[in-house]
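Reply to thread "Modeling small-molecule complexes from scratch"

Following up on the discussion above, here's a worked example others can learn from. I took a protein sequence and the SMILES for flavin mononucleotide and predicted the complex. Inputs first:
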Amino acid sequence: MSETKKMNIQTVRQTAREKLKGFCRVCPECNGKACVGEVPGMGGMGTGTSFKNNVEALAAYRINLRTLHGVKKPNTQIKLFGQELKTPIFGAPITGNNFNMGGALNEEEWAEAMIQGCLTSGAMGSTGDAPDPAMYKAGLGVVAKAQGLGIPFMKPRELPEVFDYLRLAEEAGVLAVGMDVDAAGLVSIPVSPKTKEDLKTIIDNTSLPFIIKGIMTVEEAEIAVEVGAAAIVVSNHGGRVLDYTPGTAEVLPEIAAAVDGRIPVIVDGGVRTGVDVLKMLALGADAVMIGRPLIIAGYGGGAEGVALAIRRMTNELKQAMVLTGCQTLEDIDMDVFF
Ligand SMILES: Cc1cc2nc3c(=O)[nH]c(=O)nc-3n(C[C@H](O)[C@H](O)[C@H](O)COP(=O)(O)O)c2cc1C
């Protein structure tokens, strides 16, 4: 109890530094520089350029102050997948606790921290998939226990396996299901790129909203809309699958413009603060996903740590909305930029 009371961002980071020792340095700025090439691990692939580009692309945007207006209590609510959320922040799908984060938490403990931390802070969490199917199932079990309030993401496995994974998600009663199509190059697991026809077959064969994660071009966003995806996640997988891709903030504006509100656009990669959330929304996203900062929060403080991190980012977003004159999330547009 006294331990709970004392939890704050500093204690969370200190605990995370101990629990993630050898896997994540919990740097003052999480920018991919110290962990170059650490995949498996927490870093970016190869030279780490894709991870670093995510952070640098966001940092390059300047926003300007506007304080002569009536916005005092901005509203960060959003309705997505039929769910009222207090904040446009999603927890990103993360797995591989033993080989990526050192295993101080097992898959179930990690998923519990992520899903419950998101729910108590009014956000929505996700779970991921890794070579061992037990990892997808562990996440799914945690989401099922949370009345289905979470989004499991599966790898782009071969179709028969995809159907099995969809059935499991349907039985668990989840809000929506997704696929990180950008993981098509993994060698440790039978995965492959998906054609438009594959995606149509998948989407036609599930009753669940289906989210495609890992879209980086306008052409593929158009395909996602055409096949009936419920949303896309503009993502380069946190820079972990292909070296030298652009940062997501670089490709987001043209993708969001092309999608033009037909389906929600979520984005991830390098989002670290509420100001970063504001920037992504101004560039056209409806919501963001957060990866590494929530790993640090979850390892450092479990569900409470995750909730603390999301509340903090949401408060920063509110502050940034006051200082840029945005009452609602829809008011956040390119006008906030300098
Ligand atoms: C350790 C680690 C494990 C991940 N596991 C998955 C996964 O299982 N499925 C998935 O779709 N993405 C996975 N990702 C990618 C994240 O969902 C997300 O796209 C990325 O972390 C966002 O960038 P950020 O960490 O800079 O916020 C993982 C990322 C990390 C760092």
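What I'd highlight from this example: The first helix runs from residue 2 to 6. The chain is about 45% helix and 10% strand. Questions welcome below.
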